[in-house]
Every structure is written in structure tokens, then in C-alpha cells.
Amino acid sequence: MRSLPPFLRTFIILLSLGLLGLWGLATSQAALLSQDNSPSLVTYQGYLADNGGNPLAGPVNLTFALYDGEAGGSKLWEENHSSVSLDGGYFSVMLGSVTPLTASVLDGPERWLQVTVDGGSPLPRQRLVSAPYAIRAQTAITATYAITATYAMTVPWSGLTGVPSGLDDGDDDTLASLSCTNGEIAEWNGTAWVCGTDDVGSGGGGGDITGVNAGSGLTGGGSSGDVTLSLDTSVVYTKTQVDGLLAGKADAGHTHDDRYYTETELNTSGGGGQVHWNNLTGVPSGFADGTDNDTTYTAGDGLALSGTQFNLATLPRGGYINRTLDTAGTTGQYPAIIIGLDGLPIISYYDATSGDLEVYHCNDITCSSGVQTTVDSAGIVGEYSSITIGSDGNPLISYYDRSNGDLKLAHCNDAACSSATLTTVDSSGDVGQWTSITTNGSGYAFISYYNASSQDLKAVSCNNLNCTSKSTWTVDSGGNVGQYASVTRNNQGYGYISYYDATNGDLKVARCTNMSCSSPVINTVDGTDIIGSEEEDVGLWTSITTLMDGYPLIAYAKASQTGSTSWALAAHCTNSTCSAVTTDAFVNMGSFGPQLQSFSATVGPNGQGMVTFTWDTATRVYAGFCRDLTCTDTAVNSSAVSSGGPRHTSLTIGADGLPVFAYYDDNGGDLKVVHCSDQSCQPYLRRR
Fold first, then answer.
1. What is the mean pLDDT of residues 205-234?
2. Is it true that the peptide bond before 59 is cis, omega within 30 degrees of 0?
3. What are the Cα distances from residue 238, in Å, to 213, 230, 231, 245, 509?
4. pLDDT at 307
5. pLDDT (tens digit per residue) in 167-189
6. What phi, psi does 29 have (nearest 5°)?
7. Residue 1 gets which letter from DSSP?
8. Distance of CA 448 to the CA centre of its chain
9. Is the pTM for the entire model greater than 0.70?
10. Which of 219, 293, 367, 486 is 20 to 30 A from 266 (CA-CA)?
11. How many CA atoms lie within 13 A of 659 on its CB side?
12. φ, ψ for residue 443 (rounded to 5)?
């Protein structure tokens, strides 16, 4: 048998489906339903043509299958018709002649016929309707199916068998023959329905209760007729009676607690009841601290703040201002001052009484008021503090953790450093004394410091603001080196560290190229004797900055080991490696023999260097000045402070262009600050 040609795409079906024989039963008697002899055959006719509408010649093989869905579903029946003849494309077959069509095949709401020609792809399924379902009429041969009107054909009453005797007369009036009088009802006596007396109600037979007894708390009752039950009010009270008795009264067992007030007492002004703040509920969040509504004020540029009052900021006139900022115990050692991005001074320092790192943030440019914050109190921490401003505009503070012998960094979380993130930067030995901080090219911390365990100079460059990633170097390990270290960065990206070489008694400078100290260039800046061949200490209390030419300026002390004399000097490097310098003395104390200390150098708005330093035993703070841009000529003001016991100075230039320096007053153990009224920081001096 040939396969269906590939050009066959059209299958035109002239559908004629019929159940042979069974259709005639529509008018038959019900008795015929018991005969299970209806042929389950369906006549199926169709027309086959190609895409051009031309009839196929045939013969063809046809496969028919029934499914319970238009697509997919379960196959319920299938049969094959081989070598079906075509007459001008027309054919006719008897479905069920090969594989019988049973009633169960059509037992469902949907049946779909699928036709396949010569084993090709099945043609679209066709849904069976109406006539094919007549096969289900076979099921009416049993009473189980006959009760389902969906499948059963109509049957006359006379065709029913097994009708109950009460209904065999054609109606349901079984009790119609009873004739009961007034007061009687139909009763079943066990055998048949009869008329009996109505024992309830007002019928002729009557009927009555046997008795209603009043129990505890009730009155009334009776054994016949209508009876009434009532509450015994001598025992039980109604709700209305109870409410009346309890009105305005309390339970005798109630305990009165004098901790509580009535609503009237609480609502009474003056002498009414009082409630503790902690017992209030629903307090607005702004008042939850019980003090105020947490309103804060900040003075912007050009403004000064006093309490909650703003005023135009004015520069100091006719003199300078010396303020005491912190007097709590012995506090203020190792101060470091800088001007924040808010234009206000911020000072880090050590509180020797509590052993804490503290910060004081001024509220105006002269520090007339401010906020003091404890930044780190974990052990004895805060010595040798140094401060700068990071890339986020918030302060970065390096300091020594004496309890653990570590170098630490505080990254402030805001401009005032009201809180900070603390990081241990180096814990390899006793490290972190004489810390000095600046920033690298990324605005992260770059710190120089002394390793007391190995007596070396070290440096670290941080890779993020919290310094959790970093590069650390030993810069100089030639002898006992690294005390009094001070670091700066110039406008070409070089890092410079000045420090004291205790082994040789010399001042040294190390240059770190591109803020990397992996291959530093180290030179001795000053190692000369003071008088003849007398041994000296050169480079004590160094402080370094860079001038407008990009070369470092170092302020430092030179002292004879016998204590017979001491100098305060400035060294200006004349090349980028500090292999050549010029020096000039701010002060030559001659035979007085004081030890000059606590140097702090910066550059004024005129581009010239400025230095502050103190005696170790005297009551003065000196202010030294460079008279030219290379500091080959210097001058000094010996009365920047002339009282108390000043130590540990730190100098910067305020937002108004005037010098501001912090210092520790050893006499009172206080942190103090001086705001100068002119560039020379002369007290009470007014220029015209």
C-alpha cells in the first residue's frame, strides 16, 4: 500500500455519522431496553483531496481514534481500515466494525475523533456531538442507569415493575381513607395507620403537664394549666438591682494603694497627683531623653553661635584671646590642632587622669565654646596624638596605645568627631610613639612613628579611610632612630619625615617618593657641634612642613649634653632630597641652659614659615617667624604666652588667616588655646 503523497494537505470531510438500528428505538416500548442487541456501529463518510482541490485516487489506509480532549488527553479507542477505496475522493467506513465501540468509550462529556491517512501526520481532531451518544442508551437496560435522565429514554408508568403497593394505584394517598375527628391525629400502631387521641394542645383529647417545680432561686410553678416561674428576689438580684446596689461603691476586699491617683487628681493643676517621667507612654521621640527636643545649631561661614543665638562673626581686635578649653583633671597633653572643613578648630589630646584620647571641637573660630568628646577609652590611649583631615572631610587621628604598645587610628564619623571608627594599625612590638599624620594622594592616612622595640623609624600608608588595608615600611633602622618623628607631604607628592638619630645625635630627613617608603632617600640635615667639639643632641622635638618652593622647612632644638646651652633652629632644604640646607636660629639661649621643646611648624597665608615652641621649665610660648620665603632670616616673639607652665604646642592657621595654637598648661593640668590677633601673635597689639 502506498503512503499518502507529501502534497496532500487538505482533508475535506463530508460527515455522516449514524448508529445503525438504535435510532429506531426512540418510539419503542421500555421493554425493548432490556435487549442488549443494538449494533454499536457508526457510519463515517469523507472526501480526500490534494492542495489543489483534486480528488485522490486511492486506495488509502485510514486509522481512526477517539480521545477525551481536543489536544493531548487519553486515547480511548482505535481501529485501522486498510485499502479503503476512493470514488472520486469519497469514501465510507463503518466505525466499530474492526474494534467494537462500547458504551464506556462514549461515557464522558467530550469525545474527539482523530483520523490518520496512510500513517502520516494526524488530521485535526473533530468533536462528536448528539447522535453518537445514543450508544449510551444501551445502559438503560438496568435500573441503575435508568434513573439518570441524562442517559435514559422516556418510559411510560405501565412499563415499570416492582412498584410499592402503596403506589400501585397510581397515586400517593395512602392515608386518604383515614377519617379522624377533632382532637385526633394519625398514629402508627405498629401495623397500620389509625386515628388516635391528640395528647398535646387543646384538642378533644386534651392533655396536660404533670408538674413544674421551682428550684433554688426561683418561685412559682404548678402541676396543671399555665404556670409561671420567677426569680426569688430574696435570694437572687436582677442586673438592675445589682447595678443600683454597687453604684459608687467598691468591693470590700479591694486594697487601696496610695501610689495611684484618681483621674480627677491627675487632671488637677497645682497640688494634683504627679507622674514620674519614666512612667509616661507615647512620649514624642524628640523628648525621649527627658532633657530637650534635641534641636542642634551650627554656625555657618561668617556666623558665630552663643547658646541658641547667632551673630555675625567678628575678628578679634586689639590683642589676642587665650582660652581654657578642658580642666577635668590632668588633661591636654600632646595636643594636635587643625582647621576642619567647617572652618572651625578641632583639637585631639591626651587626658592623663582617665588615660583617654579626647577631642575638642570649637563652635567658632576663637573657641569661645565647643564640644568635648572621649574618642577612645580602652586602656591607656591617646599619647602622641596627631590630626589631619581625610578625603571624606572628617578628621583622622593617629595616637599611641600604651596599654598594648600599638599604633592606632581614629577615623571620625563627622566633622566634630562626636564618634569614630577605631583601628589598630600596627601591633608588631612596642610601636606608635611620636606619631605624626598627614594624607597620601588618595586622602587616606599616612603616618610616621617610632618602633621602641627595634628603635627604628617606621611609616604606614593606608589604602582606605579606616586603614584596614595598608602598606607598612621600616624607613630607617641604622641605630636608635625615629624619635620626635614629624611628617608632611609637598605639592609634588613627596612625603618627608624629619626625626632624631639618637645614636649619632643628628637631625635626619627621609624622603618617600610618591608617598612610598619602600626605597627612601635619607640625609643628615644637621649634626654639627654647638661649641667646638662638645657633644650635642640635634633634632629634638622636630616639626616639618613644606614651603611654597615645595622644599621642607624643619624646626627643631639643638642642645649640648652638658646642658650649658640650647638653640631653637629652622632648617630649609634647598633641594628635593634635603642633601643641602640653610639654617638660621630663632633663639640662642647661650648660658641660660633651658631645654627648648615642643616645636610645631606651619606656613602662614603669606607663604612664610611660622613656628611655636616652649621652654621645659619656663612660663613662655615662643612664636618664631621666617622673614623671607626660604627662611634664611628669622625673628621671634617670646611672649605669645607668658604665664602658666605651657608645654606641648600645636600650631595652625585659622579660617580668618590668623595663627591659632593649642598647648598644655602644666601648672593647672589644662588644655588651652590661643587665637592670635595678628600674624606675629603679639598680645594686645593693634596695628594701624
1. 76
2. yes
3. 21, 11, 8, 11, 104
4. 67
5. 666 655 667 777 888 878 888 88
6. -80, 160
7. -
8. 37
9. no
10. 293
11. 33
12. 85, 15
